[in-house]
Design a protein that fits this description.
The protein is mainly alpha-helical and about 150 residues long. It has three helices and no strands. The protein starts with 15 loop residues before the first helix and ends with a helix.
C-alpha cells in the first residue's frame, strides 16, 4: 500500500470542524486517562493492603479454596494490565493536542499510532477474555456432567 506524504494541514483535508472534534476528544481522553491512573494507584494501595491482610489470613479459605497470595497476584496483574491502555490514551491526548495546535503532521500521525495501539490492546484483551469465557463454560459444563 502506497503512503501519501501530503500534509493534512497544508492540503486543507482536515477541516476546522474536524480539528475541533479532535481537540474535544483529546480533552475527554485525557480526563479518562488521568482517571485511569488514579484507579491504578488505588489498586496498588489495595494490593499493599491485601498483602498485609493476607499475612493474617489462613493459607487458604476452605470455602473458596484460593490462597490469599493468588488473590493479591491477580489484583496486581489487573493493575499492570490496566496501566498500558491508560498510558496509550494519555499519549494520544497530549500528542494529538500538540499536533493540532502546532499544525504538525508528524505529531498527529504519532497520536493516531498511540490510538491504534490502545484499540489493538483492547481488541487483544477482548479476544483473550472471550477465550477464557469459552474455557470456563466448557469446564463448568464438564464439571456438571460428572
Amino acid at each position: 500500500m502506497q503512503q501519501d506524504n501530503t500534509n493534512i494541514f497544508e492540503s486543507g483535508s482536515l477541516s476546522d470542524t474536524a480539528k475541533a472534534h479532535l481537540l474535544e476528544t483529546t480533552r475527554w481522553t485525557k480526563f479518562l486517562a488521568i482517571l485511569s491512573f488514579i484507579f491504578i494507584v488505588l489498586m496498588l494501595i489495595g494490593f499493599i493492603f491485601m498483602i498485609s491482610a493476607s499475612s493474617m489470613m489462613p493459607a487458604a479459605n476452605p470455602r473458596v479454596g484460593v490462597a490469599p497470595w493468588m488473590i493479591t497476584f491477580v489484583w496486581l496483574l489487573l493493575g499492570l494490565i490496566y496501566w498500558y491502555p491508560s498510558v496509550m490514551l494519555y499519549k494520544f491526548s497530549n500528542t494529538m493536542k500538540d499536533g493540532l495546535n502546532t499544525a504538525n503532521n508528524e505529531l498527529v500521525e504519532n497520536a493516531f499510532r498511540h490510538q491504534k495501539n490502545f484499540w489493538k490492546f483492547m481488541g487483544i484483551c477482548t479476544i483473550v477474555f472471550i477465550a477464557l469465557y469459552v474455557v470456563l463454560i466448557i469446564v463448568v459444563v464438564a464439571g456438571a456432567a460428572m
